[in-house]
Amino acid sequence: MWETSTRLLRLLSLLQTRRDWSGGELAERLEITVRTVRRDIDRLRDLGYPVLATAGTAGYRLGAGADLPPLLLDDDEAVAVAMGLRTAAGGSITGIEETSVRALAKLEQVLPSRLSHRINALQSVTVPMANTGPTVDPSTLTAIAAACRDSLRLRFDYRTHDGTTSIRTTEPHRLVHAGRRWYLIGWDTDREDWRTYRVDRLAPRTPTGPRFTPRTPPDPDLSGYTSRAISTSAYRYQARFTLYVSAETAAERISPTTAALEPIDEHSCTLRAGSNSLDELAIYVTTKGFDFQVHEPPELVEHIKTLAARLTSATDQHHGRVETAERGGHEQAGAQYRRRTR
């Protein structure tokens, strides 16, 4: 049985290295008969590998199937795939960050230690051209992803925005990627509530565990929930505006890490943002360049009215000074003209 299993793996590896193989070539490489090759091909098909027969040459080709079967990678290929997934997880390719982390967690679970050392060494000497924000160690992402996948409690050291560090214990639910940042949504067992954590501020502790029964998430829309949690809920003032542009247009200028957008119709959307400063909220929405209406909180409504009156008064005073100066200039010029013509 062991010889058969080993032979099947060698056969699969050969089929993955080139497009077409004849039965005789495979038999020669594996040192078996052509009849045994045919039996082994049937075994691979039973395992879900779509091995196609090529007409006229009694040959074989590994084709595409309905599902992706396991792949055999040599050492260099495994290192290349892992490095590519780590790069993609960092946000270099928009839209595949979260799936890259899931794939990376699966791959690193089965990597031999010698390859893990090679990958870590290569990562340590690789410097990106630009660093536009906080970075997250890929090993931290894969550790969190594995805990989410296996429903294992996760303990970690967490640093808040003011620099305070504490130990948190969570039932991790999902990783959410936003721009250059990663967030963990999890049930905080000490606070008995859902929390959102910035992954660049946490350091996992080992070992993980014990297992837990996954809870119903706080919101079916985890992306929107995360956006509200990090941009609105944590602040003293939580503002709601109507922007008179579509949500798609607003999203070109408004990051989900600073505010949450909800479409109303094709010409308007709701903007929710938070801050500890009314001035900051007023400046934030005004400088986006969209027409808007402010709804709440009441303090912000009144504050924007006061700012609008102050700005209007400032421009009115400016125009008044200009008009006065112009009248004075005209009068002075007239007096000079009258003196010259006497």
Give a summary of the structure in a few sentences:
The protein has helices at residues 2-17, 23-30, 34-46, 75-92, 97-110, 113-124, 138-150, 222-233, 247-251, 278-286, 298-340; strands at residues 21-22, 51-54, 59-62, 154-159, 165-178, 181-188, 193-198, 202-205, 237-243, 260-265, 268-275, 292-296.
What are the key terms here?
342 residues; alpha+beta; five-stranded antiparallel sheet; four-stranded antiparallel sheet; 11 helices; 12 strands; 22% strand
* Average pLDDT rating: 84
Tell me the number of strands.
12
The level of helicity is 40-55%
In spatial order, strands of the major sheet run 7-6-5-4-8
Estimate what percentage of residues fall within beta strands.
15-25%
Low-confidence stretches: none
Q: Which of globular, elongated, flat, extended, rod-shaped describes the shape?
A: elongated
What is the C-alpha radius of gyration, as a whole number of Å? 32 Å
**End-to-end C-alpha gap:** 126 Å
Along the chain, the helix and strand elements come as HEHHEEHHHHEEEEEHEHEEHEH
Estimated structural class: alpha+beta
Major beta sheet, specifics?
5 strands, antiparallel
Counting DSSP H or I runs of 4 or more residues, the number of helices is 11
Question: What can you tell me about this protein's structure?
Answer:
- The structure is a single chain.
- This protein has helices at 2-17, 23-30, 34-46, 75-92, 97-110, 113-124, 138-150, 222-233, 247-251, 278-286, 298-340; strands at 21-22, 51-54, 59-62, 154-159, 165-178, 181-188, 193-198, 202-205, 237-243, 260-265, 268-275, 292-296.
- Helix 4 packs antiparallel against helix 5 (97-110).
- The protein has eleven helices and twelve strands.
- The strands form three sheets. A five-stranded antiparallel sheet has the order 7-6-5-4-8. Strands 10-11-9-12 form a four-stranded antiparallel sheet.
